[in-house]
C-alpha cells in the first residue's frame, strides 16, 4: 500500500513539474518579446530564443501527456480489475 501511494505521489509530482515547466517557459517567451519591444534584443536572436523555448514547451507537453496518460490507464485498469466483471 505504501509503495502505491509513493508511486502516485511521484506521478503527481511529474505532472506538476511539467505544468511548472510550461508556465515558466511561457513567462520566458513573454520576457523575450518585451526585450524586443524595448529594443534590448535583436529580432533575429529573439526568433531563435523563441523557437528554442517553444521546443521546451512541446517536450514538456509531450512528457506530461505521457505521464498523465499512463497513470489514467493504470487507474482504469485497477478499477476494471477490482470490479470483478472481467
Write a compact overview of the structure shown:
This protein is mainly α and 86 residues long. The chain contains two helices and no strands. The longest helix is centred in the last third of the chain and has 41 residues, at 43-83.
What does the model show?
The chain is an all-alpha fold. The protein has one domain (2-83). The protein contains two helices and no strands. The chain has helices at 2-37, 43-83. Helix 1 packs antiparallel against helix 2. The two termini are 23 Å apart.
Radius of gyration: 19 Å
Q: State the assembly state of the protein chains.
A: single chain
Strands, count: 0
Name the helix and strand elements from N-terminus to C-terminus, one letter apiece. HH
Summarize the helices and strands and which ones pair or pack:
Blueprint: H1 2-37, H2 43-83
Q: What are the main properties of this structure?
A:
elongated; 86 residues; 90% helix; mainly alpha; 2 helices
Amino acid at each position: 500500500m505504501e509503495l502505491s501511494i509513493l508511486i502516485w505521489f511521484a506521478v503527481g509530482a511529474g505532472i506538476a513539474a511539467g505544468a511548472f515547466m510550461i508556465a515558466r517557459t511561457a513567462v520566458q517567451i513573454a520576457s523575450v518579446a518585451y526585450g524586443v519591444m524595448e529594443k534590448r534584443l535583436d529580432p533575429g536572436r529573439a526568433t531563435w530564443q523563441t523557437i528554442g523555448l517553444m521546443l521546451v514547451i512541446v517536450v514538456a507537453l509531450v512528457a506530461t501527456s505521457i505521464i498523465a496518460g499512463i497513470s489514467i490507464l493504470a487507474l482504469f485498469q485497477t478499477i476494471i480489475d477490482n470490479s470483478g466483471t472481467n
